[in-house]
Records
---
Amino acid sequence: MHKKLSVWLRFVLVVLASLFILLPVASAHTMTAEDFVFDGVGPGMTMGEVKAVLGEPDKVDAFTGDGMRMVTYIYGKYKIPKMTVLGRTGAMNEGPEADIKVSGMTIYSGSITNRNGVRVGIYYKEVVAKYGEGVKDVDTDGKVSYIYEIPNTGRSMSITLGAENIIREIYVATEA
């Protein structure tokens, strides 16, 4: 009887220790790839698909150099745009601009949201309530961001905060 209790106690201790080790990793956040899509645009789309969803951009910037070909669609005619969408490919790729894959986008406007209402202008605590807390990053200027990554996808989202922990910018990126 004593031996059975000892085996059972060891089993319980191993399970509890495993939970304490794995729990912080498992509960880091609950974002999925669908949460990285804002107003129908997200990583992995082509620049042509972006135009089909958002229409013609207000401005297009293009650059080829350092082994890269980049195209940026800028939506919004003001000093700070509503949204920018970056497409990137190799410099040797001379194919149509519309076929270049989206590699990043920056959202500056509260009118652009993901499926769960994440947008510029809300309190970061609202994001934490929906997804959990991201990994905190403070740059050399003291700017605070929280990073959310989806493992093994190359996708990440950086949520930058302003005064009173209100979201002032959202950057979504992919390695694609």
---
Amino acid sequence: MKTLIIILTKIPDYRTDADEGANYFFTSAEFERALLMGIFILLGLIFILSVSYVIVVYKRIRRVEKTIFFEPGIFNYLERITNEKIRIEKIALEFHNDPYKNDKIFIRMITKSIIDAHNYFQGNMKLRLENFYLSTGLLHHSHKKLKSNRWYIKCKGLRELSEMEVIYFYKDVLKLCYEKNNLVNVEAILGIIKMKGSEAYKDVSGYRYPLSKWVIANIIESIKGVQNNRQFDYSLMLNSKNESILMIGIEMIKYFNLRNYEEELNYLRAVNKSPDIQKMLN
């Protein structure tokens, strides 16, 4: 009997940590502390979300209030700009003395109004709008958008500068032709064409990257609206190593029925193996 007791006392304990943990329970005090901590965290999250929501709603209400407040003043500017009896320099001076000239919402609203009007009017009225845009420094607000990290802000800046034909920032717009984002690419290419017309074709001809068919179609439509298209030397495009630019050149020659390029087109028919190019040539 003594021998058996000795043997049993020498049997090792094979219980694992998991077995020990299975017998462990929170005490009442520990459970209360954990529960209170969870409640405090939940209340904190609810508070943060509530404050964020209130801020967003407040900003939206404030934006609407400012929009309603600024509308009469902006309409007054447009009315005076379209009145040819009032000098633009005088209106620009009033703008520089305007207490809201640095307000972001005001700047955004008046810039949009000026550009929309510029797209609508022709002749001298168009020139007056351009003069106001330049004299007031609104062009610099458009230029800042080109430096944004957001592609849609860049596109907006490109549209504004190209619509107002601000040649001063032509090089900055040209740089964005090589942006990684395709939508920025097409806006920049369309922008330089709108700014310089047929003079920009040299820069377009030197473009090295492939373009999608959608981009090519947009560029072609833009070129069709440019004055003095027939006077441009389309040989630059026909000699381009970029198939996309080559397609634009061929389409333009066909559209304007420029027969003086027939010899170069025949050469392309003989040497160029691209199915898309051959389809356009035949």
